[in-house]
């Protein structure tokens, strides 16, 4: 099973940004990987693990903003498609770095 966490947290003030950062750090420390800036996902072994991690997210909720969770099966997750647009002409590629051994 995969557990997704989607969130929209206020970041207008420094305390709000700190709370949003603390929540993101909690997710990373709890084994979630960032798919997009406010979309995180992790693998869980069954319904009990999903329930456990939803409870952990609930305990770490910021006081403002909103958070949603969604669980999907491995098969459903495997059907996800990554769609990328083309870079605009005025965008530059990152410079290549040389590795010295």
Topology at a glance:
Layout (H helix, E strand, L loop, with lengths): L1 E7 L5 H16 L3 E4 L2 E5 L3 H13 L6 E7 L1 H5 L23
Antiparallel strand pairs: 1-3, 1-4, 2-3
Task: For this entry, give a set of tags.
101 residues, alpha+beta, 4-stranded antiparallel beta sheet, 3 helices, flat
Beta-sheet strand percentage? 15-25%
The shape is: flat
Gap between N and C termini: 42 Å
Biggest beta sheet summary = 4 strands, antiparallel
Mean pLDDT reading: 89
Structural class: alpha+beta
User: Which strand order does the major sheet show?
Assistant: 2-3-1-4
Which value, in Å, is the CA radius of gyration?
A: 17 Å
N-to-C SSE string, H for helix and E for strand: EHEEHEH
Low-confidence stretches: none
Structure, explained:
It is a single chain. The chain has 101 residues and is an alpha+beta fold. It contains three helices and four strands, in the order βαββαβα. The chain has helices at 14-29, 47-59, 74-78, and strands spanning 2-8, 33-36, 39-43, 66-72. It has a four-stranded antiparallel sheet. Strand 2 (33-36) and strand 3 (39-43) form a beta hairpin. The longest helix is centred in the first third of the chain and has 16 residues, at 14-29. It is flat. The mean pLDDT is 89.
Outline:
The protein is of the alpha+beta class and 101 residues long. Helices cover 34% and strands 23% of the residues.
